Amino acid sequence: MIGFIIASIVTAGIIKGTVDITKQLRQTIRRRDEARRVIEYARLHNISIREAHEILHND
What is the DSSP string of 5-22? Predict the structure, then answer.
């Protein structure tokens, strides 16, 4: 019985850790995609990345 409780706690910790890592990866991917979008917009309109960022985030 005690072994089952300990195993459950360990499993819950592993699942939580996996969920945290997944959230971090998703956030990193979103940031990367956003950066690409800003750079592409800047190139397309021949403006600085800073200007493109301001334009895209003031919509």
Answer: HHHHHHHHHHHHHHHHHH
* Angle (deg, nearest 10), helices 2-45 and 49-57: 110
Region label for 16, one of left (φ > 0), alpha (ψ between -120 and 50) or beta (otherwise): alpha
At 47, which amino acid appears? Answer: I
Phi, psi (degrees; rounded to nearest 5) at 46: 55, 50
Whether 14 contacts 5, CB under 8 Å: no
Per-residue pLDDT tens digits for 4-52: 788 888 888 888 889 899 999 999 999 999 999 999 999 999 999 999 9
Tokens describing residue 16: 């939580």
- On whether the pTM is more than 0.90, the answer is no
